Each structure stands twice: as C-alpha cells, then as structure tokens.
C-alpha cells in the first residue's frame, strides 16, 4: 500500500480534526487558539495536551493531513516515504495513559518522524530500507535503540522520512541529494525544486514545514547539519558514541551518528536528552557519559557571555573552495557581530591547522572499507530479506537487475558501492588512513584550533565543507571531547574516564599499543618493550563488558600494565631477555601476575631488561638483552636506563602503559626508576611472592611496582602484596595486606624523624655521582624540614660511618664480597630449580651449565659487540656455576651480611629514634638495603643540568647527561611500607619534581586516546 492509499484508509476509518481554513500546510491549524503546527514547539504541544485542549490522536490526524497535502500532491515534496498505520491507535493509548497516570516525559504523545534507515518494529508495518527497493519488506529484529528510547519516552513514531538513498553512499553519480528509489526526489520547501541537501533530506523538509513535531536524522559527514541548514532548521550532529547506532542501516561505525532535527534548539535538546546514552548493542556508546544530562538545562540566553569563539577562515570561508554564494559570508560576518554584542569573544581568524590537508583526506577510502563490513553485518542481522539482497554484492546485483526501480535515467549510481565491494577489510593501509583522518580532524583539526586559541567553540557557516573536520574526528560540531594525557595519566584519572564511559579499556589498550609502536623499534628506538600480549584487546573487551554489567573488580580494573620479562604471564614468553628460554613453557602465571589479572588489570606485554637481571655479566651495558636489544632512557638520546628493570621504567616514564612491575635483587628496581623519573617501590623481601619469577636469590629478590606517582605505585602494591604458599618467604608478610593507598597523606612527614647516613653514601668519590645530585638532595632535606619533618644529619651506620673511618670502608667492602658469595650460590641453585619446573624448553637449557654452553654456541644471538659476555668475575654465570652449594663459607657470608645490614639499619633507626633514612637513590645505598631485604621507595628528585658532561657507560649509552633524572629514596626496616609510602607521597605532592621536565621530544609518543577511540578492533 503506498503512502497516499494509507492516508485515505485512515481518513475513511476516523474523523478528522476539527479544522478551520484551507488544507494548506502553512494555514492548517487545530483551531484559532491552538498552536500553529508550522512552528509549534514540543513545549507548546505539551501545554495543549496537558490542558486537554487537544489530544495526541488529534495531533496525529493533523500531521497526517498535512503530509497528505504536500508530500505526493501539490508541490510533491517527497519528504515522507511511509507512515505508521498504528500511529492513531498508539496515540489513543498514550492519551489514555496521560489521563490515568500522567506523562512519561516531555515527548509523551508527540509525533516524530524517523529517517528511513532507522529501524522500527516490523510488526508495526513500516519498512526500514534506506530508500531502496532491495530492502522492501525485509524484517528487522526490532526497533533501533533510538526508536525504542523514543517509544519508552512516549513519543509517537509517525512515519519514515525520505532520504538520499543509502544515505548518499551508493554513488556519486546519483541525482541531487534527496533522491531514493522508493521515495523519489525530495525537494526543499523554500523554492520549487530546490535541493534539500542530504542525506537526511526528508527529515529536514518535513520538520521545516510542520509535517511532524520533529525528526531524527543520521550523519556520516554532513547528513544532518547540511539538510538542517538548507531547510532552515536546528540540527545536532552528536559526538560519535553519544547516541546508539544499533538498528540503524550503517555506513561507518567510526563516523555514523544519530541526532535530532527540529525547529528550535530547545526541541533538539529535548529529543537529544531522550535518545542519548549507552547501549550494550553499540560499544562506541561506552564513551558516553554514564548519566545523560537533561540537555534542556543548558538553554541559557547568557551562555555566550565571556566565552571564546574561533573563526577558522582558511578554506572554510573561501568561496572558491566551498562553492558558497557570497551572501553566506556576508550574513556570517553579521552573526559574529551579534555574538560580540552578547559578550562573546571572537578570535578571528583561528584557523584549523589541517585545513588544506582535509581537502585531500582519505575519508572516502575509510568509508568504503567500513561500508562493506558494517553493511554486511547489518544485513546478516535481518530476519528475512524477500529480495535475497543479503550482502553488499547482492545489492549491487539487485540494482543492476532492477534499473527501472533503482536507476534514475541518465545516472549510473553505484560507483561507491562497487568500489566498497572491492575492498579487502581492515588492514595496515586502512588503519593508516584512519589514523590520518583522526589526525586531520582531531589533533591537527578541531582540537588543534581550540587549544591553540583557548577556545570554547568554533564558528562557521554550515554550508560548504564545514562538517568535514567534525566528521573525521567523530566530534559534535559544537564542542570537543577531552581525554587524559597518557604521558602522565594516573590510575585514578583513567578509572574516572572508564567509569564515566569517556573511553573504554579497549581504547586504552589500542592507545598504548600505538604509543609503543611509535617509539619502541621506530623513531628513538627505546627498546623498552620486548613483546606485547596478542590477547590484550580481547581481554580488555571482556573487562569492559564486566564494567558495563556493574562488576568492577578493583581500582586496577581495565588498566593496562607491563611486566618485566622475568615475570611469567600466560600467552607470552618469559625469557629474562635471552633466546635460551624463547618458546619455553612455564606452569602458569607468576603469583603477582595472577593477582593482577584477578584484580582486572590487563597484562599489556613484557618489558625489556638487562639480560638475566644483569647477573650474567655485570660488564655488559645496562638495559641490553639479546631479545630486546639495547634499551635507552627517554630523557637524553642514548641515555643509560639503568637496570635490570630498564624497560619497565622507560615504558612507564613516557606512558607506554599505566604502570609496570619490576624486580630487584640489588638496585634493579630503584636504579632504573631513579634514572627515568618515576616512582619505584622495592618491597620488603617476602611482601610480594616470587613464585613464577625467574630468580637470582631468594634472600634478596623482590617484586615491586614502577609508576608515575606514589599513588599509582601504592595501588599496584596493594594488589600484588600478600602471602603465597608457593613462596615460603611470604609467610612473614602481614596476614592481611592493607590498602596502601590509605597511607597517601600529604602531612605524613610532619613530626617524623629522618636520618641522613652521609659517609660514603653522599661522597661523589665513592658513589660516582655528579655533584648536582647532592645539591638537589640537600634542597630535598630543606623541603622535608618545611613539611615539618625533623632531619638528623648526619647519622652513622656501622658499615659506613664516615669517610675517614677505614674500618667502615673495609666493612662495606666485606658486605659486597659476601654478597657475591651469597648471590652466586643462590643463583645456581635457584635457576636450576626454576628451569626444572618448566614444562618444556625447546633449546634444552635445563641447567645453568647448559645456559653457559648455549651462550657460547650462539654468540651471534647472545653476545653483544665488544663484550665477552661470560667472564669469570663477580656476579656472573661462570662464577655462579663454580660455586659448591650451601656450605659453611656461604652461611658465614649470609650471616655476616644480615647482621651488618639489618643490625646496622635497625640500630641507627632505633638509636636516633628515626622513622626512616633518606638518601639519593643513585649510589651505594641500594647494596645494604638489598642485602637486608628491607623496603625502599624512590621518587623523582631532579635532573642533571644542561651543561652536564656526557659520560659513556657502554658502546651506545651515556650517564650522566643533560636532563637525565635522578631520585630520592626513603628507607625503613622490614614491613614499613605504609610509612615510606606516606613520606614519599608528601614529598611528591610538595615538589611535583617529575613534572618539571619531560622526555626529549622524539621519545614522547604522540598517540592519545582521542586518536584511537572508534578504531576497529
């Protein structure tokens, strides 16, 4: 039944409204006291309905009559493609409900039109066809989400509006906008046969002359705002993701958006308030606010006052490029004067950096790929298609077979369809195009202009190419989204965005992977990451679903974390950077990994390290591993990253992950954290399990967090700490692990006593430190005093009382010598035990002896240029292999060292009634703390001056160097992590030293969340 027959069928069954005057749409009204339907607002209509002046049934009849007059008769505007035969029945039910229980929302009983690519219940009798006969009588699964929301709010879906067929993506050689096979050629009501623009042509035309109270359109690039402009309407093209596209015939999941078209801003705001919000059927809506505001609350006549508006003149107001008539710019300039008169600040010009490049963007190439994938998916979801046009290919064939229906005379009309069908899906070329589009639309587009001029919005005439930047960006034309800077983003900041659905964990993973790709093996080649988790995106998607269902496991839920490549993680290698263990199978996740997963963290990948935790041969440059190559620090080209947790620190420093785990036996966590301007916590030995971690020494090994803030480090430690029956050292840990974030107290230093064991620890002749470190350290002591701390300076420890005490120096040397005996013996026993636990080792390296043999046999892989790599020396594979196990010499060395270090640290703390020791992180202090198994936390302290002389530390690494960071450490007795975290936090919050200098430019990845949101998986 065609639309004309449907209307007459209704009129035969029902009595028309009380009417006066002619049947012209312009003059037809309910009665002299009733609102004029040409301009009637939703508020006007609700007032009349509430007062009982007319009913929703009356409204439906009136709008049907108005459609009948001008749609296929008279001017033949072809604005409406079909009507809802059940609209009167539905209106009657809503009228009864209003009388009985009141109205559901401001849209209760209000008739609206939907563009004919927005699905409505098949049982209702309306089709959803994008204007094509190919989908006529196809059965959709149900209402589109936006249609369902309108129904729930009490709106009446009056009918379907005509459109540019297939939302104007079928071909560039179709007639003017507004033509569809089913609907014919829609025209503009302001001049006979004028273009209505498209593709939401009918929605624009029908709303302009009051064939409904308002309508919904869709936009990919200009398809709402252009017909709104051409037809004298308000149109809102929302941020991609604010409104669900589920049930909408698609073009591109990256650019499609559904929005209102109305006669006033107030009406548009009212409709947007209903249709906006998250939808589990459209994962792009996960970025929408968790709670949608009532947009009508922002209707403020003073909103322009004091705000800054930019005018991107270049390209967008150039009539030779836009094709606009000069009168448009004349009126636009008048509007700028009006904005100024309302107290607005107009920045003119405020050009978009990418303006000229947008003209040659790869947008259409992206849309073709998206169209084939997204449309085929939509068609597959239909319950039935009588024409059997179930794929894009079959639709092309349908159009060729039924040219009388689908091909207007003189037009081919399938060029884009055919080119889309020829695409081969998501590939590297496609993602390159997509990245370029986002860059043009976002960081070099709208964001670039807004940020450069500190603007609240951009202003332009709608006609021309104005919609393009917003289309490429996925932004609303009136504003821009803001996301946390991943260089500094904290766990708390990211959780806030995730909870509010500004972005998803999938987005986070994509962003971090892109950042890794930028600087790891490309550009500065920092070599911080040894491999990434191939399942990270899928795992993130599952965690996003959990969050949506109300399950948030912990503050780490959905947060991407890197692990040092000696911490086992299922699905990735665990090799200590060596090819000898590549492909080996371990029993399962390390305990700390399992705890992170249970807390909802995403294991993003494995960080590079000094191979074998720097124990194979200490003469090899720090940060080098055979698998990972030579890692370098991001604060100076070729900077020594320290080790062995090199990659964990480098990656965290520049935001390649939210945080990371490192391990320490002797300085391996504290030193790289210090060198890379991040926070590192080396916990008490036993607080964190070492099960599943490639070991050096059970007496000294510890796993701890590396983060950009003390708060993040505390959050990570809270999750990984605690007892584990696989590691008996953890039985000394507290039975109940506290939430360490509870100790983040900006006043923690006040009234506490801090000792400075100067001796060899602050003597540059012994530490090898640049004098700048002591200068900044002494300033830090003043900061501690200013925070109310009591600094006892100096205090003596038995193993380093003063520079002139030769006995103390000899004692320290004894510590080091004994440490070599202990670690050498421990390593052989521990590594052989670890290797025996592996399920398989392709290289057959089942013992330390075989590891040594492997390295000798594979020097092309395992021996860096210029190094022997396995010298018989202190702390080396060969020395360890020569040890004879736990003998009397071993136990004597262990006993002596524990007495000297634990006894010494505890004695100085107790004698001076100290709460902690404080020293620069660089230098010798890591040795006694590591031997004691005591906790230590480092926070950023400062940076080497720009005139610092560069010192070589290896074939391609240097330290110190201009701008190279260094840290400050707080040290305590066993299990005093809560106090140390509080002290470090108070110091960090007072100084914010990390923020005082950024990494060198090439080492900073540019990818941000805004660049990856809405990428395909």
TrEMBL record:
Protein name: Amidase domain-containing protein
InterPro entries noted in UniProt: Amidase_dom (IPR023631), AS_sf (IPR036928)
Source domain of life: Eukaryota
SUPFAM superfamilies, per the entry: Amidase signature (AS) enzymes
Any Pfam family hit: Amidase
Residue span(s) of domain Amidase: 58-470, 507-980
